[in-house]
Write a structure and sequence with these properties.
With 310 residues, chain B is an alpha/beta fold. Chain B has a single domain (13-248), classed as 2-enoyl-CoA Hydratase, Chain A, domain 1 (Alpha-Beta Complex), CATH 3.90.226.10. Chain B is 43% helix and 11% strand. Chain C is globular and about 50 Å long. Classes of the chains: A alpha+beta (105), B alpha/beta (310), C alpha/beta (240), D alpha/beta (560). Chains B and C meet through helix 3, helix 4, helix 5, helix 6 and helix 8 of B and helix 2, helix 3, helix 4, helix 5 and helix 6 of C.
């Protein structure tokens, strides 16, 4: 197992009011993303636990693009990874970001 | 599309139960927005045992438990995620369900829905998982003794195997879809232990007609058969909650009679096809291919399951 | 101890327990008066539909007509792994047996498991683990998951698994590990007459609440289960 | 083989019918084993020892689907003193026995087209010198050589049934048989057929009896691999996204009606999206109506929804026979009602009469060359290079062909401008086991070096590829004006592979502005809509329902 952590400055706060969202499952080639709105508005933190070691550079690129595209300020993303491909990681992160933009029920 | 619209739109329950995640099943099964989770993923109550094996954890340890409304009535719900470790029971996973059932027992008035999707005991924490299943079985019986209805809904990827099959057998009633296999020993386990002549696990038609939802319904092992949709399972859950009888000594006696009768009638049948034929189904070989609606009509015709014998 | 030794030691006043192809049934005279129902599985017999239906019949008949504790004496294999058993609904038969035992236990017929040999998986759940108190005798050898099978699935060598087993009782076989997780409440001593130990247990019998998770925590073998169950219980009660 | 005969000064030949005489001698040697043309299965090896000579060219019929499995076992059992050093000229090296022939020394030299499940072992044996390799071909190319310089001396073929005269019914899986028999029988070769049964009258005559010399009745039906069955349950969201991109970004704008699909999950997703997503886009009747294609079960919903006019097939597919029989408007069927497939004709159809090929691959390099070879596997080519190449001899116009030609050469004079076939590579940026689809250099090059091959095994050459589709978007290579644009267009859809991360972001941005690269959002596609609920069928069982119960999938695909 490898632990990775990426901290970014986001252009703006993630929209919506939802406090928490979870998407995906930990299975082979899949991952779960837990999003929590508990950081200062300009910050974004992505923490990863992954079974596939040695892919830090790819994670770095995926997450930098994600923050650039979705600007999820104020949100901490926690990932449990079952060896997902980068396109799946991008999709789950985007899904989590979209869920956070919903209004809390 | 604004986010608010998605949240308020009436839920689409036409989708596949088999393909949905545990969370999606719960969200769509219950009345919209009514679900409240206990010890959700943000609590990060993960399994303490997986890291020993270098395996990734899941924040909810593969089970969602909580409370919500079903057609306005409060229910407790537990849903296993069949894709995480095959939905298997570990220490934390099992304890969440045990706690929920004990609460139902103490409150006496709130029914429990178990969305089972499991391969049985999680072998990396086998002792804890086995014991968790024993505790859950006991808690189900205690809850039912206290008057609680415990209904199992089975139609997930991992089926309902091992100790999961025993928990299913302890429920007040079960609804199952074609995909929802219920058994104790899995096909591969039988083949490994007894040889391919006893059971060819790669003969998928054999697996399904021995363990699958249609056979369980025709045998009386499940009360209702549902199409593989969330709506199907919701309708089945409402039907069963409205119709299961109280649990007591008479129930156990009736079940004893039901199972003895089954052994006597079908004990010598070598295959499910023979059992279905003995049940009076004219073209038993056509059963696996029947669409859900036709199968339900057929099953209702040949076997009205007794709802006071489980 | 052989089964015969165990029965003699448990019931010095006599018993009529029979072993029919591995299925035990009968009763024994308790020193404190009355009789105990005895059911169980011997000779490492697999628990299939034929065994389970006979055992549940004995238990149900006894609930209707008898009194006193129920002893579940076990040296079994796992569930019977066969096409016929699964075809006919083994899960229902095993669950029914467990239900009968647990129902009896709740309704004044305390169920006491005595594990003197092997047991595993579904066979274990339907018998010894469906009791209020599970007693282990020296030499008992319960196996939830054997290490060779585990090695096959985890792709870890048996040596590595045995090494890991030293730090946690949570997966490896054996009476000691199951005692630590709370499955086995107490272990009896062969040197003392079993009747003495049974009477002591009956004198001080715990109520019918399932406390195995608390026991596992106390013994350090299952640290999270009791707390998690209690937290969910508390949250669920609050929301009424 | 041809030897000069001593003694005649004016002519080097004493006879113009040496081949025929040799054939007759071989036939005579086998006469005692046959009753008429019928030979018992137990005498099959004896028959082969009688008619095959050391060093013969032998075609052992087998491709990616059906296999003359009884005859391959019989050949493996020959006495090496009688038969050895054969030159195998066959479509498929698929059964373990096919390679055991080389291990034993029964065969020495090999020319073939496809190796599928034996791809790893064949690589090992080539490297170990166990096999003397002629060349790896495409199907059509090997068929062509049967008529020029690789004509078989003996053909060992498979059919469903035969009558006593040797007329053969090859059934839905006719495949290569007519081509192999044509080349062998009319050039003094010997044709031996294994059949599932011998009957009084065959349902239809696929091979006339005068081209067949011996018939062996097998104890079990010949093996057929269900290679073209893709379980919809295994289709992922990313594959659905690539399918949506292809439909909206390529099928629709070019109006592609005549086409071939590969066998991967991406194209299966396209087939299952036609009746849902395609319908929503209003494309029915405008695209995907005429196919050179095997009977893909995944296409059933589109057929049932009225999308498909007709399909010509290379072979059949296990379980599809009754469905095909009930849909003669769509498939080519014989007077008996069953499918008539023909690999050679369908390959020609795919090459000349289709405007698009779309399929997946394992590796794509910076020039767009693609390969299914890895350093340890040689899967062969099969038919993909014929489907996936521009036919330089094509002369008839069509909208998609002209449009593609125009995009490639906008300034050319229209009446003199060649059209282009659309050759589309589709896949996710990372494949199985997270292996990147895009690489700086194909493994095929390393393999060629290791085996000292003159040509690296390239499945589709970069200059034939017109589009690459990944979940990142579509790269239209027709619009690239030089090698560096082409490279950046490829990098631009290569996602987070090393190739993708090394892109020149500014240049990729400019290519996107020009429409060379089109992202999902450029096409109005929301990646979140790429959901499995969009598939017309999500399981094999759904396909059975769509077919009205006519499709009978093999047991391994069932979950009911």
């Amino acid at each position: 197992m490898e632990d990775l952590s990426y901290r970014h400055i986001a252009r703006q706060r993630a929209g919506g009011t939802r406090k928490i969202a979870v998407i995906g499952v930990v299975a082979s080639g899949n991952l779960e993303v837990l999003a929590e709105r508990n950081l200062p508005d300009a910050e974004c933190l992505v923490e990863i636990k992954t079974a596939a070691e040695g892919f830090g550079e790819v994670w770095n690129a995926v997450i930098a693009d994600f923050v650039e595209r979705h600007s999820p300020g104020g949100v901490r993303f926690s990932i449990n990874d079952g060896g997902a491909r980068p396109d799946t990681v991008s999709l789950r992160l985007a899904q989590a970001a979209r869920l956070m933009q919903e209004d809390d029920q | 599309m604004s986010a608010g619209q998605t949240a308020k739109a009436s839920p689409d329950r036409t989708g596949s139960w088999y393909e949905a995640s545990a969370r999606t099943r719960v969200r769509l099964l219950l009345d919209p927005g009514s679900f409240e989770e206990f010890i959700g993923p943000e609590q990060r109550e993960i399994s303490p045992h997986l890291k020993v094996f270098g395996l990734p954890e899941q924040f909810d340890d593969g089970i969602v438990v909580g409370r919500g409304l079903l057609d306005g009535a409060p229910v407790f719900v537990a849903a296993q995620e069949g894709r995480f470790m095959g939905g298997a029971f570990g220490e934390v996973h099992g304890a969440k369900l045990t706690g929920l059932l004990r609460a139902a027992r103490d409150l006496k008035s709130i029914s429990v829905l178990l969305l089972l999707d499991t391969g049985g005991v999680r072998l990396q924490e086998a002792n804890a998982g086995e014991l968790a299943i024993a505790e859950i079985m006991r808690a189900v019986i205690e809850a039912r003794t206290a008057g609680v209805k415990v209904v199992g809904l089975i139609g997930g990827r991992s089926g309902c195997y091992g100790g999961g099959g025993l928990i299913a057998g302890c429920c007040s009633a079960l609804a199952v879809s074609e995909q929802g296999r219920i058994a104790v020993s899995g096909p591969e386990v039988i083949e490994t232990n007894r040889g391919v002549e006893e059971f060819d696990s790669r003969d998928r038609a054999l697996v399904w007609r021995t363990m699958g939802g249609k056979h369980r319904r025709l045998l009386g092992g499940a009360e209702l058969f549902s199409d593989d949709t969330v709506q199907g399972f919701r309708d089945a859950a409402l039907d069963l909650l409205g119709s299961v009888a109280d649990f007591g000594l008479d129930t156990l006696k009736a079940e004893q009679a039901r199972l003895e009768d089954r052994l006597q009638r079908f004990g010598a049948c070598p295959d499910a096809i023979d059992i279905w034929t003995a049940e009076g189904i004219a073209d038993a070989a056509s059963v696996p291919a029947l669409p859900a609606d036709q199968f339900i009509a057929l099953a209702d015709q040949v076997r009205r399951t007794s709802r006071d014998a489980r | 101890m052989t089964l015969a030794d165990i029965l003699t030691s448990l019931f010095p006043g006599g018993h009529d327990v029979r072993n029919d192809d591995g299925v035990l049934s009968g009763s024994g005279a308790l020193r404190s008066g009355g009789r105990a129902l005895v059911v169980g599985i011997a000779d490492r017999t697999a628990v299939g539909i034929d065994e389970a239906i006979r055992l549940s019949r004995y238990v149900l008949d006894s609930i209707a007509s008898g009194s006193g504790p129920i002893l579940v004496i076990v040296d079994s294999d796992s569930q019977r792994m066969s096409k016929r058993d699964e075809l006919l609904g083994l899960n229902e038969f095993l669950a029914h047996l467990a239900k009968c035992l647990i129902y009896a236990d709740i309704h004044g017929r305390p169920a006491i498991g005595i594990l003197y040999g092997h047991s595993a998986a579904g066979g274990f759940l339907a018998t010894a683990l469906a009791t209020r108190v599970l007693v282990g005798l020296p030499g008992a050898d319960p196996v939830v998951m054997d290490l060779p099978s585990m090695s096959k699935v985890t792709k870890l060598s048996i040596d590595i698994l045995e090494e890991k087993a030293k730090s946690t009782p949570v997966f490896a076989p054996g009476l000691q590990n199951l005692a630590q997780t709370g499955a086995v409440h107490l272990t009896w001593d062969e040197a003392t007459p079993l009747a003495d130990q049974l009477e002591a247990l009956l004198d001080d019998l715990p109520d019918a609440r399932d406390r195995r998770d608390a026991l596992g925590k106390e013994r350090g073998g299952r640290l999270k289960a009791a707390d998690i169950a209690e937290r969910v219980h508390g949250l669920a009660l609050q929301t009424r | 083989m041809q030897t000069a005969i001593a003694g005649a000064a004016t002519s080097t030949r004493t006879s113009w019918r040496q081949g025929r005489d040799a054939r007759d001698a071989r036939l005579a040697a086998a006469v005692s084993l046959a009753k008429g043309k019928i030979v018992a299965a137990s005498d099959a090896t004896g028959l082969l020892e009688a008619v095959i000579r050391p060093g013969d060219r032998v075609c052992l019929e087998g491709d990616n689907q059906k296999q003359a499995d009884l005859l391959s076992s019989a050949l493996l059992a020959v006495d090496l003193a009688k038969v050895s050093g054969l030159h195998m000229v066959q479509s498929g090296v698929v059964l373990p026995e096919h390679l055991d022939l080389f291990e034993r020394g029964v065969a020495k030299r090999l020319d073939y087209a496809y190796s599928g499940p034996q791809s790893a072992r064949i690589a090992t044996m080539l490297f170990g010198g166990k096999i003397e390799l002629g060349a790896v071909h495409t199907y059509l190319e090997l068929f062509a050589r049967y008529f020029i310089d690789l004509t078989p001396n003996v053909a060992l073929i498979a059919a469903v049934s035969a009558d006593r005269e040797g007329n053969l019914y090859t059934g839905p899986n006719t495949e290569d048989t007519p081509t192999v028999v044509e080349a062998t029988a009319f050039k003094d070769g010997i044709v031996i057929a294994q059949v599932n049964e011998i009957i009084d009258r065959v349902p239809r005559v696929d091979i006339p009896g005068d081209r067949v010399h011996f018939v062996v009745q097998a104890d079990k039906p010949f093996f057929v691999e269900p290679l073209f069955t893709r379980d919809p349950a295994a289709i992922t969201e990313s594959q659905i996204l690539t399918a949506m991109l292809a439909i909206k970004g390529i099928y629709a704008p070019y109006g592609v009606k005549r086409l071939n699909h590969g066998i991967g999950f991406n194209t299966a997703a396209i087939e299952l999206l036609l009746p849902t997503y395609g319908e929503k886009l209003g494309l029915k009747g405008k695209v995907a109506s005429h196919f050179a294609l095997n009977p893909h079960p995944a296409l059933i919903p589109a057929i049932e929804s009225g999308w498909v006019e007709q399909i010509h097939s290379f072979g059949s597919e296990v379980g599809m026979d009754e469905y095909i029989r009930a849909r003669p408007d769509v498939y080519f069927t014989g007077p008996d009602g069953s499918l008539r497939s023909n690999r050679a004709f369908s390959q020609v159809a795919g090459l000349y009469a289709c405007d698009m090929f779309i399929g997946s691959t394992l590796q794509i390099d910076l020039q767009g060359n693609s390969s299914t070879v890895t350093t340890s596997r040689i899967a062969g080519f099969g038919g993909a290079p014929n489907m996936g190449s521009d036919a330089r001899g094509r002369r008839h116009p069509s909208e998609p062909w002209l449009q593609a030609g125009k995009e490639a050469d906008p300034d050319g004079l229209a009446p003199l401008r060649r059209g282009r076939k659309l050759v589309v590579q589709i896949g996710e940026t990372f494949g199985d086991k997270n292996a990147p689809l895009f690489v700086e250099q194909l493994d095929a090059l390393a393999l060629a070096e290791k085996l000292k091959l003159e040509l690296a095994p390239v499945m589709i050459y970069g200059d034939d590829v017109t589009h690459i589709v990944t979940e990142e978007g579509i790269a239209n290579l027709l619009l690239c004006r030089d090698a560096s644009e082409r490279e950046q267009a490829i990098r631009g859809v290569a996602g987070y592979t090393a190739v993708g991360r090394a892109r020149d972001a500014a240049m990729v941005g400019r290519l996107r502005e020009r429409g060379v690269i089109r992202r999902p959002e450029d096409l109005g596609i929301d990646p979140f809509d790429a959901d499995r609920s969009m598939l017309a069928a999500r399981s094999i069982k759904d396909l059975v329902h769509w077919s009205g119960g006519l499709y009978a999938p093999p047991s391994k695909f069932r979950n009911w």
